[in-house]
Amino acid sequence: MMGLGSTIGAGLFLGTGVGISAAGPAVLLAYVIAGFLAILVMQMLGEMGTVIPASGSFSEYAEHGIGRWAGFTQGWIYWLATVAVLGAEITGAAGFIGSWFNVSPWIPAAVCVVLFGIINLLRVRSFGEFEYWFALIKVIVIVAFLIIGALLILGLLPGHSFIGTSVFLEDGFMPNGLGGVAAGLLAVAFAFGGIEVVAIASAESEDPEKSLVNAVRSTILRISVFYLGSVIVITFLLPYSILGDASTAAESPFTMVLERAGIPGAAGIMEVVIVLALLSAFNSQIYASSRMMHSLASRGEAPRIFTTTNKDGVPATAIALSVLLSAVMVVLNYADTGWLLTFMLNAAGASLLIVWVLIAVSQLRLRRQLEALHPLPIRMWAYPYLTWFALALFAGIAVLMLSDATARTQLFSAAAMFAVLAVAGVINAKVRGINPTSTLPLT
After folding, report:
1. CA-CA distance, 58 to 55, in Å (whole number)?
2. pLDDT tens digit string along 26-68?
3. Measuring CA to CA, which residue among 426, 443, 383 is closest to residue 40?
4. What torsion do the CA atoms of 8, 110, 265, 168 make, to the nearest 10 degrees?
5. What gap in Å lies between CA 285 and CA 398, rounded to an integer?
6. 420 contacts: CB under 8 Å, gap ≥ 6
7. Distance of alpha carbon 55 from alpha carbon 315, whole angstroms
8. What is the pLDDT at residue 148?
9. pTM of the full predicted structure?
10. What end-to-end distance do the CA atoms of the chain give, in Å?
């Protein structure tokens, strides 16, 4: 459920219109490409994670497959990107909550930061239970949306006639040509960011191998039903020309569809769902960032104080750091202090590309060693060709990002962060008397 919930974020409800506006119904091709990449990444993570279950996940895989510097860089870039967006998520949720109760947004922001800090300090089973219900609510909403949308399309709701493909093909499947599809791909390329948290969380489950196998095998179904299903419903019911980036729940394509179906209070319902999505993402990312910091500290790549755990084995000091920095990021969001916040958020926007590239390279380098060590419950398909194909697609997305001013800034910011961290990784290894290019042996 964490894997399922992590892919259903506020971006699905508010940002879907951006890609549709750019590509029209052909945005489905962009989602298929992005979804295919996400599935390949999950398959790679599953292959490595079932043999090397670790809370450091892909950071440790990079250390095993590429070198000490790569493990350091992978872990820190993921941690920094996660921390950067914590403030944006809680700020967004607090804005909605503050308007509900007519209070200043910083009050619900402070309450949420403290509340979710406490939740993360509980036993991991309690955290998992809490996140399960968060994810379940989002899943129920999406399923209800898909059912209502299908009934609308088929004209089976009272007072509605058959729509079929009349809206979907009104201006053709690809109204803006291949350029529109490329722009749509740029808008949705990182829509599935967050699925990698499954590999981190599985290490703390009762049966890591079984948990990860189940999560990986359900990825195709999750992406097909929840994302592609939602986009199909929207493109069948709403002209692409009226959609765009939604800044409020009322502007969400999901709200427009529900209002078309005559659902009372659709905007209010979507506000609640968007807040739950933001809070769920905030909760999961405190979890993921704290585990990554704990792993880095355990490997000597972060201060040793962050190896401390409480009596339930929860990395308390690492969680405290994430909570503290989330509060700092909230303050920076409200203060709008300029270049630092902008740089962090821009770097976070493209850092997923770097994380996924290093996952693919790690899998290429580790496959033979993993096979020699343990039978593989999950195997990357068509090795090594599909892995190389994924890397080629990543390169294509990077080139595409260079053509857009906003995406180009994100790419350059992430590249600068990567370069600084790579140098820091080399220095860290040399200070510890370790060859930066040496790999951590598999045992």
Report:
1. 9
2. 999 999 999 899 899 999 999 999 888 888 899 999 999 999 9
3. 383
4. -30
5. 25
6. none
7. 11
8. 94
9. 0.92
10. 30
Residue written as token pair 């919930």: 5
Tokens at 193, concatenated: 């960011």
> Under 8 Å CB-to-CB from 440, ≥6 apart: which residues?
60, 63, 64, 68, 71
Nearest to 70 by CA among 386, 366, 398: 366
CA 84 to chain centre: 13
State how far the Cα of 156 lies from the Cα of 443, in Å rounded to an integer.
59
C-alpha to C-alpha distances, 428 to 167, 211, 221, nearest whole angstrom: 58, 34, 42
Topology adopted by domain 2-431: Amino acid/polyamine transporter I (1.20.1740)
What is the C-alpha to C-alpha distance for residues 325 and 109, in angstroms, rounded to an integer?
13
Rounded CA gap, 263 and 73, in Å? Answer: 48
Would you mind telling me the total number of residues written for the chain in this entry?
443
How many beta carbons lie within 10 A of that of residue 137, not counting itself? 17
Contact 344, 337 (CB under 8 A): no
CA Rg value for the chain: 22
Please determine, for residue 69, whether its predicted confidence score (pLDDT) is greater than 80: yes
Closest CA to 240 of 98, 28, 37: 28
Distance CA 295, CA 441 (A): 16
pLDDT confidence of 3, banded at 50, 70, 90?
low
Q: Report CA dihedral (412, 68, 282, 145) to the nearest 10 degrees.
A: 80
Q: Hey, what are 299's tokens? A: 């490997």
Q: Is the confidence at residue 5, as pLDDT, over 70? A: no
14, 243, 273, 378, 428 from 18: Cα distances, Å: 9, 7, 19, 35, 42
Distance CA 273, CA 193 (A): 19
Confidence of residue 74 (pLDDT cuts 50, 70, 90): very high
Instruction: Kindly list the domain boundaries of the chain, sorted by start residue.
Output: 2-431
Reported as a single tens digit per residue, the pLDDT across 373-425 is: 888 999 999 999 999 999 999 999 999 999 888 889 999 999 999 999 999 99
DSSP class per residue in 135-173: HHHHHHHHHHHHHHHHHHHHT-STT----TTTTTTTT-S
Rounded-to-integer distance, Cα 303 and Cα 307, Å: 8
Q: Which residue has the tokens 């006639």?
A: 161
Angle at 217 between CA 273 and CA 199, to 5 degrees: 70
Q: Which residue is it, tokens 């968007």?
A: 274
Q: What is the pLDDT of residue 336?
A: 62
Task: Compute how many other C-beta atoms are within 10 angstroms of the C-beta atom of residue 243.
Answer: 23
Locate 412 and state its tokens: 């350059």
Q: Tokens standing for 182?
A: 């490329």
